[in-house]
Write a structure and sequence with these properties.
The protein is of the alpha/beta class. It is built from 14 helices and 15 strands. The protein has a 7-stranded mixed β-sheet with strand order 2-10-9-8-7-3-6, sandwiched between helices. Strands 11-12-15-14 form a 4-stranded antiparallel β-sheet. The termini are far apart. It comes from Cucurbita moschata (Winter crookneck squash).
């Protein structure tokens, strides 16, 4: 088609009533191009085969998708979300005021700063060391401040590479498994057992107190362990963590210890893996302000890589992690780090404990509700999650039933691994009136 014909066609499309002169080419017709007839351009780059191994969508976006579909079906329903573990209560003012002050200072010559240390600002690292690791032999030089524990999990996977074997608690936070799959550490997904090849799934059940007989667990290079556990809410005892450290030392393994809920522990169970003798030689610990101070959107966490932790050739793991951090990350937001300093002040710690106490009261309400209905309930005491057993039933079916009949979003246990089948995780993160209303609806459904 000539340039004139193209221009006339576009004019005809925009204004179909316009009168056009006849040309030797005949009558000008407006023809809509079908999208179906368009051929998409494809590059010559192959897709990462490891991405193709992943099953369906990541758990929490899938829950959000189903929630949105439910809202389309019931546009007037008051949907209550006790599924995704997102905090709901306002950040204490003592913390936000510190962030606001730092933010305003950035508009002055004296207060402005650009790039900071990738490892975190020195005062923040020092205060994390003093607050959480006093007398445990963890110095500020062992601490890397980040934009959250979840991000650091993947950065640690980059350190380990694809040629390592992996173990995870079953059930466990899905980021451990999915990051292992993406890095190429696993085999294909085995639908019959709902597991990936080359991952050691350490089954944690009510029958074993959510801590396995390690003598029956195969040796792997890396062991992901979360205490208090997401999703079961169980926290490991000192004796159990001593067994875990001894198991790792015997096998020459590295433990990646997720302590993101440690401040919820109200008994004498360890809040850090480094309370266990010898742990600095076999463990990394990652943690976060997300569930302590409501920083799920602010994004601030840290990872401890002790100088004593060495690879098989004697090279310090911390040096490689430092290289990954320096390559892939420009450091946590200076405004977020100002909030972190405020969190760890005496007033900030008191405020965080108040927020945690509020969520733990929610947990008690949820636990009492399901216990009154005759269900076996776990977790809750040292964690913001309640793990409810629905024996013989599909977790997704129970999730769908609750959503359809009560308009309450929960989390299906099978989304955390095959060991979670037959369970539902109920989050205590919610406004008090919503938690009370959700429990009232549960009682109506299951009475």
């Amino acid at each position: 088609m000539s340039n004139l014909s193209c221009k006339l066609s576009r004019l005809c499309y925009r204004n179909p009533t316009v009168s056009l002169p006849r040309t030797s080419a005949g009558v000008c017709k407006c023809v809509a191009t079908s999208q179906d007839s368009k051929t998409d351009y494809k590059t010559a780059v192959s897709r990462n085969a490891n991405m193709a191994k992943l099953q369906a969508g990541y758990l929490f976006p899938e829950i959000a998708r189903r929630r949105n579909a439910h809202l389309l079906k019931y546009p007037d329903a008051k949907v209550i979300s006790l599924g995704i573990g997102d905090t709901t209560e306002p950040i204490p003012e003592v913390i936000t005021s510190a962030m606001a002050k730092r933010s305003h200072a950035l508009s002055t010559l004296e207060g402005y700063n650009g790039y900071g240390a990738e490892q975190g600002e020195k005062p923040v690292r020092a205060l994390i060391s003093k607050t959480f690791y006093s007398d445990l032999g963890i110095g500020e030089e062992d601490i890397f401040v980040s934009d959250g524990a979840k991000c650091d999990i993947t950065r640690l996977q980059l350190v380990f590479g694809s040629n390592v074997s992996m173990a995870v608690q079953d059930p466990s936070y899905p980021a451990y498994v999915d990051s292992s799959v993406i890095l190429g550490q696993t085999g294909l997904y085995q639908k019959d057992v709902e597991k990936y090849g080359n991952i050691e799934y350490i089954r944690c059940t009510p029958e074993n107190g959510f801590f396995p007989d390690l003598s029956k667990v195969s040796r792997t290079d890396i062991i992901f362990f979360c205490s208090p556990n997401n999703p079961t809410g169980s926290s490991a005892t000192r004796e159990q963590l001593t067994q875990l450290v001894e198991f790792a030392k015997m096998n020459g393994s590295i433990i990646v210890y997720d302590s993101a809920y440690a401040m919820y522990i109200s008994d004498d169970n360890p809040k850090s893996i480094f309370e266990i003798p010898g742990a600095k030689e076999v463990a990394i610990e990652t943690s976060s302000f997300s569930k302590y101070a409501g920083f799920t959107g602010v994004r601030l966490g840290w990872t401890v890589v002790p100088k004593e932790l060495l690879f098989s050739d004697g090279f310090p793991v911390a040096k490689d992690f430092n290289r990954i951090v320096s390559t892939c990350f420009n450091g946590a937001s200076n405004i977020a780090q100002a909030g972190g300093l405020a969190c760890l002040s005496p007033e900030g710690l008191e405020a965080m404990r108040g927020v945690i106490g509020f969520y733990k009261e929610n947990t008690s309400i949820i636990m009492d509700t399901f216990k009154s209905l005759g269900y076996n309930v776990y977790g809750g005491k040292n964690a913001p999650y309640v793990w409810v057993s629905f024996p013989g039933r599909s977790s997704w079916d129970v999730f769908a039933e609750m959503l359809e009949k009560t308009h309450v979003v929960t989390t299906p246990g099978s989304g955390f691994g095959p060991g979670g089948e037959g369970f539902i995780r109920v989050s205590a993160f919610g406004h008090r009136e919503n938690v009370l209303e959700a429990c009232r609806r549960f009682k109506q459904l299951y009475k």
